Amino acid sequence: MADQSNIQSAASKSIRPFRSSEEYLYAMKEDLAEWLNTLYDLEVQVENFMDVLETGYDLCQHANNVNRIALEFQQLHPEATARMKIPQKEVIFQAKNVVPGSFIARDNISNFIQWCRQELGIQDVLMFETNDLVLKKNEKNFVLCLLEVARKGSKFGMLAPMLIQMEEEIEKEMRDQVTYGELETEQASEDLGPQSPVYPSRTQRITLCDLKNLDELCDINLCLISSLGKIRDLLASRF
User: How many structural domains are present in the chain?
Assistant: First the structure.
């Protein structure tokens, strides 16, 4: 779980209103750049985001790292991964003397795309094509795909970008609130006795919407649901 102070700091920075899809995209690139720099000691910035990754080398390297971590996770937690799709197929790529836009670069990118589809099962709506990166013509889908790859990797214990960490915190908080609401409903049913009518769905809804029952982090999470928690869906629909 992410450190709460980091989440709150990132949340306070990120819940500012975005005036356009371009601002959403910038925020995601900024987060992904920091994430990639942490994982691989790269020098990715928002301004050179596509340029640094256009040979496909770092993408394929990351894919194989996800494979490795997923297999280690499977060995440690066989029961938890019984119903999970575990990526295994190694991504073959060229690492040396790769010229951006060359056949080798295109082949690297194509192999990464194939791995995303076949090994991670990423949906087409979140996928990009080779030319999207080579010609820098569809930055949005490239960024959405990387976020989804990061989300899949986080399920196996891999470090995730802050946006994904906050999204997971949102989901956990909401699950906790649902569980708490269900427990309150069961307790109310026992207290009122078998003859008294109880309406679970209505009780749960009131519990979830009553801000007095939520702590400070959940207040932040509720704001993030509309701005960051569903950011990929917003971008996919607005472009």
Answer: 2
Range of the domain at 106: 17-160
- Residue 97, phi-psi category: left (phi > 0), alpha (psi -120 to 50), beta (remainder): left
CB under 8 A, 24+ apart: contacts of 216-223: 216/8, 217/4, 217/7, 217/8, 217/169, 217/173, 218/173, 218/177, 220/7, 220/8, 220/11, 220/12, 220/15, 221/11, 221/166, 221/169, 221/170, 221/173, 221/174, 223/11, 223/15
- Asked whether residue 5 is assigned to any structural domain, the reply reads no
The string of pLDDT tens digits covering residues 46-97 is 999 999 999 999 999 999 999 999 999 999 999 989 989 999 999 999 998 9
**pLDDT at res. 202:** 30
The pLDDT value given to residue 168: 74
What tens digit of pLDDT does each residue of 148-188 get? 999 999 999 999 999 888 877 777 777 667 665 656 656 65
